[in-house]
Amino acid sequence: MTDNVFTADFDEIDRLINSCTLCSLGSKRTTAVPGNGSRTAELMFIGEGPGYYEDQQGLPFVGRAGQLLNEMLGAIGMRREDVFVTNMIKCRAPNNRDPLPIEIRSCGPYLDRQIELVSPKVIVTLGRYSTAKFFPDEPIGKLRGTPANWNGIIVYPLYHPAAALRNSTIRASLERDFLKLPSLLEATTPTAAPVQPPPSEPQTAQLGLLDAPPSQSADRPSEDSAAEPQDEPPSDQKQLGLF
Ligand code: SF4
């Protein structure tokens, strides 16, 4: 056993998170939500933070947004247990507000270690907060649906399923982007040749809809913060021309 997050294994990470009080959310949660799924997954999903049901059950994406995620995985022939799912912050924020920069920074080492341990081939960022972790200097409206290289891992920013539940245009975009995942996973290297032509996007997808807070969901019904995450920028960012 270790208390060092940088050398912790999966079980130790879960234990550290479940006892964590590094930020104020630790005293407000019902249950921490470390994340779950295949520890050898090629595909990893990173959302924003636990909602009500996640906080109750200690599991990520178990509400309506999670059901949609499961449906979309099914559409590409994958099961939830094939992938690893986690969030930027591991404890629910009061009233489902957006996570604060200090909370994201405090929780960051857990996520970093999870990424290191899972070592996925593709990371799907769901919504603006997890996307900003990898590409803090890029407007998110330009990033959605465009895979990019981050330290040798393909990062693929998508809308948050919770946003898709509220907006049919976002849902259509998300479902369309999801269908590209098998091709991304088949790409043997981050610099692989193009695997699919780009879909034609409705104009509404370029109008800032991605910026709709991912916390606006049935799982996380209230949101009013404009807080922005301030993670350290990655050392190796490169847009890929996969689509
Ligand atoms: S959100 Fe993260 S840093 Fe904050 S108490 Fe929970 S596990 Fe610890």
Q: Over all CA atoms, what is the radius of gyration?
A: 17 Å
Provide the helix percentage.
25-40%
- Trace the largest sheet across and list its strands: 1-3-2-4-6-5-7
Please give the CATH architecture: 3-Layer(aba) Sandwich
The biggest sheet, with number of strands, parallel, antiparallel or mixed sense and barrel status, is: 7 strands, mixed
pLDDT averaged residue by residue: 82
Terminal Cα separation, in Å?
A: 44 Å
What small molecules does this complex bind? iron/sulfur cluster
Number of discrete domains = 1
CATH topology: Uracil-DNA Glycosylase, subunit E
Summarize the helices and strands and which ones pair or pack.
Elements: H1 10-18, E1 36-37, E2 43-47, H2 52-57, H3 64-75, E3 84-87, H4 101-118, E4 122-126, H5 128-134, H6 140-143, E5 148-150, E6 153-158, H7 161-166, H8 168-178, H9 181-186, E7 237-239
Parallel strand pairs: 2-3, 2-4, 4-6
Antiparallel strand pairs: 1-3, 5-6, 5-7
What can you see in these coordinates?
The protein is 33% helix and 12% strand. With 243 residues, it is α/β, with parallel strands linked by helices. The protein has one domain: Uracil-DNA Glycosylase, subunit E (3-Layer(aba) Sandwich). It has a seven-stranded mixed β-sheet, sandwiched between helices. A hairpin with a 2-residue loop joins β5 and β6. Iron/sulfur cluster binds next to α4.
